[in-house]
């Protein structure tokens, strides 16, 4: 939903983007599931090189969910 909303924004289709973002707000439990998934991923990768791009991105995305 988020990526679709971003795509609509990039295509200057604001109404469709708003509808996608509203779905996220209407289904907040999805965010809780995302937090759990990120926590599990980060726990699994806790000893990895902190400069690995996907790990850096995951940390940034996780921080934005708080």
The fraction of residues in strands falls at: under 5%
Largest sheet: none
Radius of gyration from CA coordinates: 14 Å
Order of helices and strands: HHHH
Number of domains: 1
Topology:
Layout: H1 2-10, H2 14-26, H3 29-44, H4 53-65
Helix pairs in contact: 1-2, 3-4
How would you describe what is shown here?
The chain has 66 residues and is mainly alpha-helical. It has one domain (2-65). It has 4 helices and no strands. The protein is elongated, with a radius of gyration of 14 Å. 0% of the residues are buried.
In short:
The protein contains four helices and no strands. The chain has 66 residues and is an all-alpha fold.
Index terms:
66 residues; elongated; mainly alpha; 4 helices
């Amino acid at each position: 939903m988020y990526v679709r909303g971003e795509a609509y924004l990039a295509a200057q289709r604001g109404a469709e983007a708003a509808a996608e973002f509203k779905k996220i707000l209407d289904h907040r439990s999805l965010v809780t599931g995302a937090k759990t998934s990120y926590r599990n991923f980060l726990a699994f990768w806790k000893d990895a090189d902190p400069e690995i791009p996907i790990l850096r991105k995951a940390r940034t995305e996780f921080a934005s969910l708080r």
